[in-house]
Amino acid sequence: MEDTAMMDASQNLFGELTFTIIPNSLSEERQQQLADNITTNGGILHSFDASLGKIEAIKEITHIISTTSDFPDYYNALDLFIHIVKPNWIDDSLKTGKAKNPRTYSPDPALFMNDVIICCGDIPEGDKEAIAGGVLATGGQYTPALSKQITHVVALTMEDPRCQLAVSKRLHCLFVLPHWFDDCLRVGRRISERPYLLPNPEILNVTAGAIPATRTSPQIRDATNPDPSNDGLPPTPPTHMEPPRSIKAFDQKKVKLGQDLQLSENLKGVITGLISASGGEVTSDLDEAQIYVCNYRDGPDYIEASQADKHVGNLSWLYYLIIHDVWTNPMRRMMHYPRPRDGIPGFKGFKISISSYTGEARVYLENLIKASGAEFTKTFKQDNTHLITAHKQSEKCEAAGEWGVHIVNHLWLEDSYAKCKEQTLTDAKYTFFPSRTNLGEILGQTEIDRSAVEKMFFSKTRKLKSSKGIVQQDTAPGSGFSNARLANELGDFATPLAKRRLEGKENETPTVPGSRGAKDRALSKLHESATDIAKFEKEMKRKGGVVHGGRRDKDAGVEDKSKKNKSRDSITSKRSIDEVDDDECPTEDDVVVAEPANRNKKAKKGTLTPIKFRMLISKDERWLNNLEKESKDKARMRELGLFITEDFKKVDLLCAPKVVRTKKFVSALACGPTVVASSYLDFALKHNKLPPPEKHLLEDKDFEKTHGIDLADALPRARLNQKRLLKDWTIYCSQNVNGGFDTFKDIITANGGQCTMWKGKGINNATASKRKIDKSNGVSQNQEEDEGDVLYLISEATSSEFANWAKFRALAKKHDMIPRIVKSEWLLHVAMSQRIHWDPEWELDEEVIKKEANQ
What we know:
This protein is α/β, with parallel strands linked by helices. Among the domains are: about 1-105, Rossmann fold (3-Layer(aba) Sandwich); about 110-205 and about 480-510 and about 530-555, Rossmann fold (3-Layer(aba) Sandwich), CATH 3.40.50; about 225-335, BRCT domain (Rossmann fold, 3-Layer(aba) Sandwich); about 610-700, BRCT domain (Rossmann fold); about 720-855, Rossmann fold, CATH 3.40.50. The strands form eight sheets. Strands 2-1-3-4 form a four-stranded parallel sheet. Strands 6-5-7-8 form a four-stranded parallel sheet. Strands 10-9-11-12 form a four-stranded parallel sheet, with helices on both faces. Strand 3 (about 65), helix 3 and strand 4 form a beta-alpha-beta unit. Helix 5 (about 125-135) crosses helix 7 (about 180-185) and helix 11 crosses helix 13. It is globular, with a radius of gyration of 31 Å. Residues about 1-5, about 240-245, about 460-530, about 540-575 and about 580-605 have low confidence and may be disordered.
């Protein structure tokens, strides 16, 4: 009897629930599997007609199964409090024998962690609580125990017991530092795990090279220009681009083309023919049309179509539908929705340039800047107001710091455009750049804010049923709660979550409502949660959250005062930066002399303090995990005339707690800087003035004794060398050298040489030539030991390199030069002592390595 009762309960898991399945991206086999699981467990399934694209009898549905939010009835379903869940909600509910929380399976893009299941290792309890609350609030799941469903294990090292257990069980999951989750919350998007992956996370590698470029974000493909060229249209509708089960774009639909498109009769005929061939029809009657296409968010037709909940998009969106012949929401991509004719309020007068974006990403941002009403400038000058960048490792970012230009990520531009309102720069997520991350990877993930557009460009009266069936008037869009707004509020993060659990019952799995009571209980539950949501929003407004806690600045919600002074006074460095093809690797050629910007008569009289010193800091950890303090301290130093830079090619002061052999420290020595101890910064920050550098010179007797290098002797040589110590040198470096090829390449190029990666291939194309020593210049006295005809290869003492060594010797012989295969110690000694020197102990030899291996 007991077994029978359990079986009946299991088979009635979805009792009183009514489903429909959106077919996009689902195979017929998967659809059939889901249908069988629903019906055999007591659920009722309503079939979906892909040709119509609409859900029939939507008011009878309690759950919609869909892989994405990109289907026509999405917003309508949210307004009706219908649960929208991914297909694995069915699978996981059946595995556990009870209905799972629908919110953690929502395809809403605002819930950016909805595919993440996190388990924490041996990290502080406060961090565990913050991660648990944060992942639940952003659509993911948290579990204290390892399981096969885990996607991420958060730990500090791979020696963590949880990591070891996961490896032994061969679980398919990623091992990441807690910093990854924190940084995801700070930008409000799921960023790449690559820089945070254990056992060797890039963000902890001080010698890591340039931030890698990213592939074109799929969110902006075919959506970079609101006014596309007409030659992009196919002569005939494409076939078999999407499976026949997908929602067709034009099947049994009528389209009206707006007057502001200003189409020629020829082009209009082409578009009409393509729509007709895809099963649609072009009409001049807006009342009978389901789709309205226009350029701008104005005019009676735009307002009427929007108020009637018709699908409104621009020409770029129409072309997308024609090319792919599958329906997509025009608000999903920025450049698919009509643009505001006068731009975003507050953007007129802005001059915006971009850095570190190339290809389609660059085109997308250029057009978004123009659509917002600002001026896009290819050349970066002093009169620019904003610089939008994917990371801060660029020449433009350094110049922006000097000139006082706002440096922001693209989220500021996207959010301003989406919400129809300029977003305040005091919001930390717009000025945050995760270490070792190219934010271009999350470009285009922001969607148009439906309620904001409605409020600004058209208003309408919508009828919503209350829990008692009474018709209520909602005349202020966005003023009441809806599932759409709830998801948006919880998903739109600007700062890390508080290090505590959210109050309420977020962690509990709710009971599944019945078919008739579903909407009533959902609405009631939503109103009960209003207090918790308000508390959560209050937490999110705290500056830095609790992780980086503190009270919100008094002026946090106030319009940025700098907008009142868009014209800036000239400072000592007058230049502009032209965009290059590869902005990832700016060169000195990017900097050219430019005329100073015209001064505004109303501008402030005070000017930015001229730069007295450029300082590079290495291994000083005073700002570790405290970006807010770092930003404030650097700003204070800049006001005193000290510019803290990451560019080791232009350094006056080099600061470190002791002499270190990092890439930045060693490379910067070529500039002949004054090397000061960390006490220099301590004094400056304490007394708010710059001390004489000679009173804080760095001394490190232990380093001198261990390595035989005295900086007091090396620095005068560096100033004499003028970055030419290795001029005309070509030094080869193994790709497997410890520390990375890029590290040694930067050190060599900082000293005027050329570094080439040696893979043991292409001997015929490799170059080498004897060096001519110019005795007429001062640097020659530091090159006295240069034999001129020696060719160097920096490698590792391992037998796997032997084959490459033999080929290198062949290269040297071909060019009549002496091969010398050396440890990296040789280069470090040369660069730090700033003179050419040779010691036989640096040479690598096969016989010696074999003997050492056999001992």
